Amino acid sequence: MTLSLKVPSLDDKKYAEIVEDARKRIPVYTKEWSDHNVHDPGITFLELLSWIAEMQIYHLDQITERHYLKYLKLLGFSPRHQRSARVYLTIGLPEGGEEGEGGEAKIIPPGEKLVTQGESGQELVFETSRGIAITRAGVRRVMTDYLTGMDDNTEANNTPGMYFLGFGAGAEDGSCMYIGFDNPPFPPGVDTLDIAVRLYEDDLPPVATHGDEEMDVTTSVKVVWQYCTDYGKWYDDGSWEDFDVEEDTTMMLNYGGVVVLKRPVEGGGDGENGRNGGSEGNEINGRFTSWLAVPGELFGYKQYWIRCRVVEGGYEIPPRIDSILTNTVMAVHKATVNGESLERLDDMDYDKKTGSGLPNQRFRFKNAPVIEADIAVDGIRWKEVTDLDGSGPGDRHYVLDRENGVITFGDGINGKIPGVGQEVRARRYSYGGGRTGNVMPGSRWVFKDQERFNGVSVANTLRADGGEEKESFKSALSRLKVDLRVPYRAVTLEDYQYIAVHTPGLRFGRAKAIVGTREISTGKTGVSECGEFPIVKVVVVPYSTQDRPEPSRGFIDTVYRHLERHRLLTDVIEVYGPKYVGIGVQMYVKVKPGYSQEGRIVEIERALKDFLHPLKGGKDGRGWPFGRTVYRSEIYEVIEKVDGVDCVSSVSLEIAGDAGRMDSEGNIEIDEDALVYSSRHQIMIVERDKGCRMGR
Question: Do 320 and 436 have their domain in common?
Fold first, then answer.
């Protein structure tokens, strides 16, 4: 049963009731006033004041949108601003370019404008988020060396929707992914190589979030990007040198993003002129020059090759790569304008580009909605605030209405007033955003500056996403109500579990919080005494494609830091991975006529694997419960439900691991911080002419 406060109605008196109540109070205050009829001037004033009182009471009972917005702000919430869509664009050089004539590389600066059309035919402007050098180096081969074999993943890399394992299923140390280019990746004048990596994530759970908290993830794996210095010995790790990585938004291929490699410089060491310390004017080393000039032959293909190699740690989810691309850059749905004079909104004939000296002046941008702005009055920068309630008379503050593209200044009490004749100018502002920017794949794109980029092709193979309209205050209020139920302080064990699985940036499987103890040594006058104190133990299981999901050191550290920020001051916490108990089943099974024995064995093993799975096992399919006993009777039920199984005559269980024990009934008990997995099974098929005697 839930209790809630009843919201009182303040507008509970009508005009006639107020007049009558006031008339009845007259004798209390003045006995001389004896004429209470409507012709009396005093009654006229009484009726006037009663009407004013009724209006005030009416307004007391009205909660406007402004009240809601202020309430949201007090609670640290505000409606979200309009958001801009983002899209990856692959850019190609014109056909027939020749080296030395600028045809082999084209520099696209950050903020370069491109134009496409929305669904309604309106012009949409996007800007590149970073600078990039466009070359003729396209990815022509992708090979994977996963220590026990090699795969050619070129077709998968070139086929939308098809992914490949970049380092194989295990991604062990030493696994390599080789990328071959059909042209030099570093033509003259180009110092960086941008490699866009898209991961296949459609069947994965979303990355965890916890309110609006920022992601702070530690990765355990380390990969290096390398180039070959001697193709005759490409199989020798000594023939490969490390690139310097300028930027890696993929975080060692844990996420989709861009890896930016720097052109190697003379030397190859870490000295003053080496790869890590060389100046831009240095010549590249001779070995790299030969690699740059002549394609090397690997796997029977002549290409310009680089490779990515795992050198440390491991992945919870080995990289499943949808595509690796060059000449690909992210563009954002916005347009930037520099140095625009704003227009004042009032009826005065005074110069509309300057201040009027009056309170609450409003100025308008030429374009809306506004994403961000940098405003100056007579060359002095002013600061944007959410409202002017806390602004003083001398504070250079303004309020920005992004949706309508209007700014409002103060009244001299709350916020300074722009003076007469002072110019109000946007030093720089961006406009755009909204759902219209979520354009479809294959949209037609052109550069705004068509003359400078004549013949350059632009394509998007994926839909733009992320564009959102401004959030209404009702939606923000609903979001607040949901957020108020979210634990941000770990008080109970359930709080610890919730906060752990919502560690930003991680893909989580499950977590279990339990109360444990830790020994502590207390010295008294030289004598060491040991005692125990309670701690909170949090067992974490990452989402993984492996049968036994194991958290890496970085995964555990990331969860620990997140819990540290949200724990009670007096709590001590410990984060670790689960113990695993392997469950092996020995059984005798009779198969129905018409079914193959080999097929039933495969199906029984699959059913046991699903039932005993740490993440999707158990009766509810949400993972085997921590510490739950494995009963023989349930194993019987699982096997008997397999299509084609007539009956099960005997079942016995076996244990693999130290966290499990067999009881007197043949069931397996496990520790409270342990999970199970499907181990080796022995499936014996009973002859069809024999019946089943249930030996449970």
Answer: no
What pLDDT is stored for residue 495 in this prediction? Answer: 97
Give residue 53's domain range: 15-62
3-state secondary structure of 568: coil
Any domain includes 696: no
3-state secondary structure of 477: helix
Residues 181 and 305 in one domain: yes
Phi, then psi, of 8 in degrees rounded to 5: -75, 150
Lowest mean pLDDT segment, chosen from 35-39, 227-231, 282-286, 602-606: 282-286
pTM of structure? 0.82
* Alpha carbon distance 674, 626 (integer Å): 6
Pairing label, strands 527-542, 328-332: unpaired
107 or 533: which carries more pLDDT confidence? 107
Measured distance CA(213)–CA(565) in Å, rounded:
11
The pLDDT value given to residue 6: 64
- Residue 158 pLDDT level (bands cut at 50, 70, 90): very high
Q: Cα 74 from chain centroid?
A: 27
> How many Cβ atoms sit within 10 Å of the Cβ of residue 640?
15
Which has the closest alpha carbon to 470: 65, 82, 84?
82
Instruction: For 262-273, give the secondary structure using H, E and C.
Output: ECCCCCCCCCCC
**Residue 659 belongs to a domain:** yes
**Cα–Cα distance for residue pair 278/281, rounded to 1 Å:** 8
